[in-house]
Amino acid sequence: MLDALLELVVEFVLEFLYQLVVEISLEYVAEFFRRRPTLSTVLAFIVIPLCGAFVGLFLSNMIPRRVLPRPTVPGISLLLSSLVTGMVMKLFGDWRRSHGHQPTALATFWGGALFAFSMALVRWLRVGRMI
Hints:
Blueprint: H1 2-32, H2 41-62, H3 76-98, H4 109-128
Helix pairs in contact: 1-3, 1-4, 2-4, 3-4
């Protein structure tokens, strides 16, 4: 049980840091193209999981083994880390909105959860089931 909790915390921290970097990068790009209309919500929710899968692929190539021992419940981090990351990204979006900025689609519950889920899924498929 402790292994599963530790794995969840490590995956959450990694996913959150990557999402934060992506969110800040998207803000700078969006600021550069502010005169253009924003992406539609449907297109954003297609691009976000693709970016998450790409980051998961990159991470699984950079660290091609499990970081922690196999958990007692395989794949639990797919669900829990996605939910927690989605909640944190929603809070980040609310914070940005309260400071007068328009948050991107990634700074919503569904955007953060989709990014985290697709990242964790690709990493789980490539690394987690190998052992």
